[in-house]
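Lab meeting prep.
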Amino acid sequence: MTTSWDAAVEAQIRSAQERGEFDNLPGAGKPIPGRGLPYDESWWIKSFLERERIPGDLLLPTPLQLRRRVERLPGEVRDLPTEESVRAAVTALNREIVDFLRAPSGPRVVIRPVNVEETVRVWRDERARAAAERIATAATADSAGVPVRGQRRRWRLPWRRR
C-alpha cells in the first residue's frame, strides 16, 4: 500500500530520471566499494580518516599518543640543526608528559619523561656518524675522479695542450 507521500517521491524520482539527472554520476557502473567484505561497524570512521587524510593516531587516548611521540622522538630530532633545538623539542614533549601525569585520563599506560641528556647524546652520535659517512663518500668519489659537491671539474679539450 503506497501513501500519497510515497507516490509523490516516486513521481519526482521518475521525472528526474526522464530529465537525465541521474546520468553520468560519479561511480556509475562501478562496483560498490567494500561490497564483498564483511560488515565493519566503524566503516564510516575509517572512510572519513582516509578521505580527510587524518592520521589514525589522533583517535588514540592521550597516554598512547604520548608514548607514540616518545617512540618517534629520535627520528624527529635527527634533522634538527642545533643542540638547543633538540633540547627544546625534548623539553616540550616532557612538559606534555608531566601535564598528563598530573591529571591522568584514559587507560593506565606507563609513560615517563624522556632523558634530555641521553637524547642529545644519541643526536650527537648520529650526526657524527652521518658526517663520517659523508666524508668517506666524498673521499671515494674524489679518488675515483668524480667531482665532489662544490668542486668544479676542469675539462681538457683534446686539441689544447698544457
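Slide two material, second protein:
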Amino acid sequence: MSEATNSLLLERGGLPEDLRWLAEKYPRENWQKHANIHGIATMWLQRHDMFRELGSLLTNGIGDYREGRLTAPDFARWFAPRLNHFLGHLDGHHNVEDHHYFPVFAKAEARLKRGFEILDADHHTIHEGLERNAEAANAFMKTLQESEDRQRFAADVYADENSRLIAMLARHLADEEDLIIPLILDRGDRALGVD
C-alpha cells in the first residue's frame, strides 16, 4: 500500500455517501435498541471497543513515560506485553475479517462490495502501520539502557508512530462499524450466515 493510500485513510471523513444507505436507515444512536443487536454485532462492537481501549492505554502509557511518571524499567515491563497483545490481536482480527466475514458480507449485499474493498485496503495500510509501530517500539525499547537523550528521541518517534496508527485505526473502525453493523441489523446473523 502506498503512502498515498495511507494518507487517504487518514484524510477520509467517513464512508462515501453511496455506501451509507444502510447506516442512514440504522443510525448509530439506535443500534443498542435494535432487536438484531446481539450475537456477531455485539461481539464486533466489543472487539472494536477493546482495540480503542488498548490504543488509548498505550498512548497514555508512553505519555506517562515521557512525562517521567514511569521509570524506563517499569515502563518496559508494562509496555511490552500490552503492545504485543494489541498488535497481535489486531492483526488476527483483520485476517479473520478479510478471509471470512468480508466475503460473506459482500456476497450478501453486492451494493456494499466496494465498501468491503475499501476496508480490505485499510487493513493493508493499517498492517504497514502495525509494522512501523512495532519497529519504532523495538528501537525505543533498545534505547532504555542508553542515554536519556536517545531514549527521549526514540520515545518521540514511537509516540508519533503510535498516534498515526491510532488515528488510522479510529477512522477505519468507525467506517467498518457503519458498514457492517447496519447490514447485520438489517439482515440478522442467521440470514447472513454468521451466527
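Talking points for slide two:
The radius of gyration is 19 Å.
Residues 54 and 60 are 10 Å apart (CA to CA).
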